[in-house]
Amino acid sequence: MLADRIEAKWIDAFCEVFARCAVKPGDTAAILSETQSRALNVHLAELALARLGARAFHLVVPTPRNRHTVPVRSTGASEAIGGLKPVIGALTQAGFIVDCTIEGLMHAPETPEILKSGARILVVSNEHPEALERMVPDPKLEQRVRAAAKMLRGAKRMTVTSKAGTDLDVNMEDAPTVGIWGWTEKPGTLAHWPGGIVVSFPKAGSVNGRLVMAAGDINLTFKRYLTSAVTMTLKDDYVIALDGDGADAEMMRRYLAAWGDREAYAVSHVGFGMNPNARYEALAMYDQRDTNGTEIRAVAGNFLFSTGANEFAGRYTAGHFDLPVMGTTIAVDGETVVRDGELQDVFG
């Protein structure tokens, strides 16, 4: 359906976002990609930086062999750099980094060192640019996400309930929280495009209860709308039971078991989407190779629940699920921020 060719409108979209990242004439910018990266996005990044007058260079690394027994998707923890010091060194010399790796540098082990240099990283999610152009962020979104992040950083408790049967309790005390609105102009920070998400990483032993995913909820690792219910029982962060009679539950059980790693069953993060331009039905509009699902993560009012690595709780694993759940009610210290899947007007 979509042709992989350069379009002026897509260069415009990349320019708009890079300009929000404070890219100016003469700035040094690195474009990081791997051999399996979406070449169209890499090319658009180069052309947009040139149009803005930045001095750009490419770093291309071979996509590494998958050492796991199952495909790895949507982890946000690219293994492409592989600790290669010359690559890390080159990235620390750039003021601005366009990350076009497949999985992205959000949770990559090299990212803290790169950010410490003062570089700012924009992760361009592995989407077709047709989706990226619809999701160019705006200042109003930034204000709302900042307000939500501030609330969660000061929160003590989050509860999540639903008519489907969800009843989840999250201890939010001292939980690191990240708000992403789609760009960053501050040195030493990272953002991803598309944006419109706020997520918290609870400390160990903080999540208990039951999460019920109904038909129509989404498993983004599989890029699939559920056709049958899946019920997860959680105790002290870990999924101790995963029940359901359909293919969705069976695939999740098999995928989690394949890692042979207890940490794959643990909670990574909790949060919610805030982008009014993100569309719930978007996953049905693209071939699987043309989407990474970041738009679905940002759908306003979804409960974004994730299993897998949580460095703030001392847990590391390559197993990962991102599970946007619709139709929930989310309360933070008793204040309802999402009601039956609708984001409430509490963030301006």
Q: Please, could you describe this protein's structure?
A:
The protein is of the alpha+beta class and 348 residues long. The protein has 8 helices and 20 strands. The protein has helices at residues 8-20, 39-51, 85-92, 111-116, 129-134, 139-153, 247-258, 294-297, and strands spanning 28-34, 55-61, 96-99, 120-124, 157-162, 167-171, 177-180, 190-193, 197-200, 207-213, 218-219, 224-225, 230-235, 238-243, 267-273, 303-307, 321-325, 328-332, 335-339, 342-343. The chain has an 8-stranded antiparallel β-sheet with strand order 14-13-10-6-5-18-19-20. A 5-stranded parallel β-sheet has the order 2-1-3-4-8, with helices on both faces.
Short description:
The chain is of the alpha+beta class and 348 residues long. It is built from 8 helices and 20 strands.
* Share of β-strand residues: 25-35%
Radius of gyration: 19 Å
* Overall spatial form: globular
C-alpha termini separation = 38 Å
Q: Give the H and E element order.
A: HEHEHEHEHHEEEEEEEEEEHEHEEEEE
Estimated helix fraction: 10-25%
Helix/strand class: alpha+beta
Note the topology.
Elements: H1 8-20, E1 28-34, H2 39-51, E2 55-61, H3 85-92, E3 96-99, H4 111-116, E4 120-124, H5 129-134, H6 139-153, E5 157-162, E6 167-171, E7 177-180, E8 190-193, E9 197-200, E10 207-213, E11 218-219, E12 224-225, E13 230-235, E14 238-243, H7 247-258, E15 267-273, H8 294-297, E16 303-307, E17 321-325, E18 328-332, E19 335-339, E20 342-343
Parallel strand pairs: 1-2, 1-3, 3-4, 4-8
Antiparallel strand pairs: 5-6, 5-18, 6-10, 7-9, 9-15, 10-13, 11-12, 13-14, 15-16, 16-17, 18-19, 19-20
